[in-house]
Amino acid sequence: MLKRAVNTILFAVICFVTVDQANAALPKYLYNLVLTVNNVEVTSDANPYIERATNTTYVPIRFVSESLGESVSWNREKQEVTIFSEHGEIVRLTIGSKVAYVNDIEKIMPNAPVMPVSPNRVMVPLRWVSEAMGATVDSTLKNETIHINITNTHLSKN
Predict the structure, then answer these.
(1) Of 39, 79, 34, 83, which Cα lies nearest the Cα of 62?
(2) Hey, is 101 helix, strand or coil?
(3) How far apart are the first and last CA of the chain?
(4) What pairs with residue 59 in β-bridges?
(5) Residue 9 vs residues 3, 12, 15, 17, 99: alpha-carbon distances, Å
(6) Any idea what DSSP says for residue 158?
(7) CA–CA separation, 125 vs 95, rounded Å?
(8) 40, 62, 124, 148: which has the highest count of C-beta atoms within 10 A?
(9) pLDDT at residue 22 greater than cutoff 50
(10) CA 130 → CA 9, 22, 91, 124, distances in Å?
């Protein structure tokens, strides 16, 4: 009986270590991204990335918002960022919270905005924020690089 218990525990430890090592082999983030807005490549001072655990593309908030023609304000005390659209949309996001407000209507995001120490920028889920501002997001994989195009429907109508 004791031998069976020891074998069961040993098997469980081996499985845990094997799974943990397999997960450690993959980096936490993927950086092979090319971002375009209305088919024009754009660059940022902080690298956008894909968080593998949630398969979420994060970009600096100013990068995505200003590329779409919006303005951004930051409230350090509340850790809150607000995006203002020239077409009237207002989106408020708080670091670490999945609760967002679009025109004062509460929405739940699948992933929260973050502010990592490096690059010390507010990083937001690209698709969710872009679509909340009325844009569309398309992505394709080419040569092990993910190409993401954001189309601002307001700009494309002008």
Answers:
(1) 83
(2) strand
(3) 77
(4) 124
(5) 10, 5, 10, 12, 42
(6) -
(7) 11
(8) 124
(9) no
(10) 48, 34, 10, 10
Distance CA 56, CA 145 (A): 15
Q: Say which amino acid occupies 45.
A: D
In this predicted structure, the answer to whether residue 150 has a pLDDT above a threshold of 50 is: yes
Q: What is the pLDDT of residues 52-69, one digit of tens each?
A: 888 899 999 988 788 888
**To which residue do tokens 């005390």 refer?**
77
Question: Please, which residues bridge with residue 107 across strands?
Answer: 100
Tokens of 5: 């218990």
Q: Which two tokens stand for residue 23?
A: 């997960």
Q: Can you read off the two tokens belonging to residue 91?
A: 């989106």
CA 153 vs CA 44, 119, 121, 149: distances in Å: 22, 30, 26, 12
Tens-digit pLDDT profile for residues 27-46? 678 778 888 888 888 888 88
Distances, alpha carbon 145 to alpha carbons 4, 32, 35, 126, 151, in Å: 49, 5, 10, 17, 19
